[in-house]
Amino acid sequence: MTSPSHGTVDRLLCAATAVVASLAVALALVVAPTDAVQGEPQRLMYVHVPAAWLAYLAFAAVLVASVAHLLTRDLRWDRRAQASAELGVGMTALAIALGGIWGRPVWGVWWVWDPRLVTTAVLLLVYVGYLGVRGLGDDRAAGARRAAAVGILGFINVPVVHFSVVWWRTLHQPATVLSPDPAPMDPWMAAALATAVVAFTLAGALMVRRRLRVLASADAPTAEAPRPPTDAPAEALVVVPRIRR
Amino acid sequence: MTAADVPAARRRQLPVRLLLVAGVVLVAVGVLAVAGLQGSLVYYRTTSELVADPELPGQRVRLGGLVVAGTVETTAEGVRFELTDGVQDVPVVNTGQPRGVFQEGQGAVVEGILGTDGVFRSDVLLVRHDNEYRAPADGTGRPAEDGG
Predict the structure, then answer these.
(1) Which residue ranges run through the membrane (chain B) (predicted)?
(2) Number of domains, chain A
(3) What is the per-residue pLDDT for B41?
(4) Does residue A114 belong to the interface with chain B, where contact is any CB pair within 8 Å?
(5) Which residue in chain B has the smallest CA separation from A126?
(6) What's this model's pTM, rounded to 2 decimal places?
């Protein structure tokens, strides 16, 4: 049986995501005007920017959870770092793919070797490496510590990616909102973007929560043994049947 | 904790595998960095830099700037226009097909060679749009502020 708190929070998150995402779709596709210069392809902003934002947020969560893991050696923090990193890798790949689809009609090319795109590709590689490092060897605790070190060092690249458009000349345009020098944006476009960012963030939180329960069940037989017996079996009973079958 | 349960022999294998993976990651990042950033830390030159640097004419470079309003014309050779950084104007003839949302008053990055006649001949034209997003002012597809 589902522990009521987990289930309730998940259902609330799920409902909130559905409502906000529907609103974002309506705002992005119907209400927001077509961009004067770029035309319809500019609407890709409403998925490209939230994907990049969620990647930043996920990697910030990896940083915090990695520091917490090194301080406490608690594997719960390690699982939070891993689940966040998985989300971040997916969102980085999504942002790159959507950026290519946006770039082809507007810039004229899918990909250019400009600093924003190159640093983003490096960001993806670093966190794919982070996920790879965890699996090296059979020692769960040592893998978690190594991953935490990569998770902390890897975050250096996040501000480099974000400010690459300020520090270097790029084909990629500078940020409009999260920028030292904000630029004008149509209010309905801004509303669509903000709503889409909230929708992505809610969906990301939901995915991380669900993934955490899977990871906890994988750790349960060995690492979770010292935990109070009332807690561990409840989680194991919930998750294992759902995932394995 | 759990580290103590793992046989020592198993843990000794780790550095080799760790080094292997670290090596692969380093090589991948290195290749990306060299192939990508070497040419693109300065992704494009400005028109002033192109004209001021005696090394650049005759070399294949990327040149970026704003497309000067009123200079775009289609000729037999290709599209002819002037790029500016606000100080220096450089005439450009692009033989490739202009792609993207190429238009006057917007940014563009061209790849090619500055000839001795002062004309930059390019075969790749990319559009560098700005970070402002707005609705068309009058249905012409152009923002009102772009007029002048």
Answers:
(1) 18-44
(2) 1
(3) 58
(4) yes
(5) B25
(6) 0.79
